[in-house]
Design a protein that fits this description.
Layout lengths: L2 E2 L9 E2 L6 H4 L10 H11 L5 E5 L12 H14 L2 E5 L11 H6 L5 E4 L11 E4 L1 H4 L18 H16 L2 H19 L6 E5 L2 E5 L13 H16 L12 E2 L6 H15 L9
Parallel strand pairs: 3-4, 4-5
Antiparallel strand pairs: 1-2, 5-6, 7-8, 8-9
Helix pairs in contact: 2-3, 7-9
The structure holds pyridoxal-5'-phosphate.
The site of pyridoxal-5'-phosphate has 7 residues, from loops.
Amino acid sequence: MLVKAGSGLATFGQPSSTGVPAATAGDTVVLPLDDDEALRNFFARSGDKLAAAIIEGVPANNGLLIQRPEYMRLLRSLTEKYGAVLILDEVITGFRLGLGGAAAHYDIEPDLMTYGKIIGGGMPVGAFGGRSDIMHQLSPVGPVYQAGTLSGNPVAMAAGLATLKKLAHGNVYDELESKGSLFADTLASQLRGQGVNLIRLASIFWTVFQDEMPRSASAIDAHGISRYNRMHGQVLDSGIYLPPSGYEVCFLSTAHTDEMVVGAARTLASIINGEMVGDSP
Ligand SMILES: Cc1ncc(COP(=O)(O)O)c(C=O)c1O
């Protein structure tokens, strides 16, 4: 989006990157997450002028900010009431949380969904889909032109299709859930009261050094992030590659064996406990 919030809820967004024209940002309003009242106030004031609302169902680019289902359902009902298209960004969550992604997790039905990452099976693919009346607006059926050099690239399509078939017909999600809980349980059993919280949803997890589970960026404790960033080098020296920023989340895959998962959780715990300074496991 590359648009940051304006100075108040009533103001439009401002570019957060060079190259985004103020006029484009000016068509966008950024609302705080996890704030039912801000949503209600905005829709009451400007809902009838809104074309679309876009949200990452489980924001996973700035920590793992798992939203309350009531918040997501409120957004769904307000967009429906005011005739705005609800776009769910499923680039990270799509086919990762399960076949139904974040929409199924919250039991909501968006109007459009965007996909990437898993849908390409490791190849560079992005996709979107949704309500047939909206999709019928696309060329060649409708007037909206959408195409590109790599659109429908045959190799990427084959990789994505093979991945999705495997996901649809195997028990991958059960396997990932059990690896996720193995990691969480092992970490919890090894930690010695260090104020660490593992926030996890299926195979996505995020380690935070704070007791409460943040649901918005403003609830993330910056001191905890600094602590993570200081620890990162030690974890890397121990052979475990966690994301380099404390705001980034981790993903488990079927390639991770239970042994690796337990080993990683134990190593992480001993570094957090201060028992280990970068020796190789
Ligand atoms: C949640 C989310 N949405 C959108 C994008 C951007 O997707 P694309 O690179 O396909 O434009 C990313 C990152 O790549 C992402 O993590």
